[in-house]
Amino acid sequence: MQASWEIFCSVVDNYGDAGVTWRLARQLAAEHGQRVRLWIDDPAALVRLCPEADASLPQQWREGVEIRRWPADWQPVEPADVVVEAFACQLPEAHVAAMAARRQRVLWLNLEYLSAEDWVGGCHGLPSLQPEGLEKFFFFPGFAEGTGGLLRERGLIERRRAFQADAAARTAFLQALGVSLRPGERLVSLFAYENAGLDGWLEALAADATPTLLLVPEGRILGDLQRWLEVPALAIGAEEQRGALRIRVLPFVRQDAYDRLLWCCDFNAVRGEDSFLRAQWAGRPLLWQIYPQADGVHWDKLEAFLDRYLEGLSPSAAAALQALWQAWNAGEGMGAAWTALQDDWLELGKHAERWCARQAARPDLAAALVQFYTDWL
Ligand code: TRH
User: Fold this and answer.
1) Which ligand 1 atom sits nearest the alpha carbon of residue 113?
2) Which residue's alpha carbon is nearest to atom 12 within ligand 1?
3) What pLDDT score was predicted for residue 242?
């Protein structure tokens, strides 16, 4: 059944808010035939992920989605059948009033941040009564039964596996980014916030017996990288060699290309929410830098994910991976943690694919949202 959907995205910082909502919007349109309008208050963030989009336009259509700039001075529009506020962003008051006044009922959902914590299952799908007499439902993505699942496009894992099995496609993709892999080089990608732990990791990689090519899309980690390299600047395309470590700065690529970059790599350092999940779908070992929160609650979220992810690993591999993630997020001890992990490299690779397959066997988030709406009707 075709319904109309509105997704509201307020860009707090970085690209995760835009990344998640743009992905969801496209999937609802492409796979579920829904009419989707994405409201975004900072379209420039979206343009980084989808370079065809034009940040100056108040309204445009891309990949089957109507993209609207969410203006500060809200002008009344007819609400859609389903209104999704992403990450508890504040809807315009006038729109909420219009939702309450609409002849046909409106399903109002708050799409929450991804968390592996146990309480998520208990809160997923719960309604909360709003002053306007409307109900708002909490929709929680998650890794376990009873949650809203994870964003995963139809056929994603099959496409990813086919790409990883096709050496020519991988080479061509990397070459288009100006990258050619030397024989025996391990390929690692690095997408991170500023991190004091970087030095220790880079030193371990430089001293390693295995050569590494580290691909770094432009972004917040470049300052730390530049300091370690002791170079005056790091432009896109810059390449530096230190011992066994070759480092190359890449442009920030479109969202679909970033997937392929992750698929190419033997190991991916990712951050936030969306790249974290995409690295899991890549079926390769990963290192997660969680979005830090002032009160430190992000540590609980990190441990909750590790509790799930480490299940099934040998005690030595589990301990090594946990130590590495803790070191990265604490910003110290990366050298020793990375070196310790090398003994478990093969096991971690197999485990990443197993984890991916297990998560991919569950219903995806877009399908779960459509089902939620159907059940609510
Ligand atoms: O950019 P982020 O740090 O976003 C964060 C998180 O979402 C966090 O939970 C939230 O609270 C905060 O923003 C406000 O990391 P994330 O979530 O991985 O989003 C990055 C997006 O950028 C993701 O969709 C992948 C995309 N990307 C590209 O499209 N091309 C690139 O080259 C790179 C490096 C990333």
Assistant:
1) 9
2) 16
3) 98
DSSP letter, residue 140: -
Q: What phi and psi, each to the nearest 5 degrees, are found at residue 281?
A: -70, -20
Does 217 contact ligand 1 (Cβ within 6 A)? yes
User: pLDDT digit string (tens) for 315-372?
Assistant: 999 999 999 999 999 999 999 999 999 999 999 999 999 999 999 999 999 999 999 9
Bridge partners of 87, per DSSP, are none
- Alpha carbon distance 70, 89 (integer Å): 12
The two structure tokens encoding residue 30 = 């492409």
CB of 188 within 8 A of CB of 214?
A: yes
Report yes or no: 309 and 288 within 8 Å, Cβ to Cβ.
Answer: no
Residue 201 structure tokens: 């990791």
Burial 97-107 (b: 16+ CB within 10 A, else e): ebbbeeeeebb
Instruction: Establish how many alpha carbons lie within 13 A of residue 99's alpha carbon, considering only the half-sphere containing its beta carbon.
Output: 25
Tell me, using a 6 A CB cutoff, whether residue 253 lines ligand 1: yes
Q: Is 19 in the pocket of ligand 1 (CB under 6 A)?
A: yes
Residue 277 CA, closest ligand 1 atom number: 18
Element (H, E) at 357: helix 345-360
239-242: strand order across its sheet: 239-242, 245-250, 212-217, 186-190, 267-271, 286-289
List pLDDT tens digits, range 48-77. Answer: 999 999 999 999 999 999 999 999 999 999
17 is catalytic: yes
Q: Which of 170, 168, 191, 159 is nearest to 356 (CA)?
A: 159
The top-level CATH class assigned to 156-360 is alpha beta
CA angle 154, 28, 289 (to 5 degrees): 70
* Given 6, 85, 117, 273, the catalytic residue: 273
pTM of the model: 0.98
Pocket test for ligand 1, best of 114, 275, 289 (most atoms within 8 A of CB): 275
Yes or no: say if 117 and 301 are a contact pair by the CB < 8 Å rule: yes
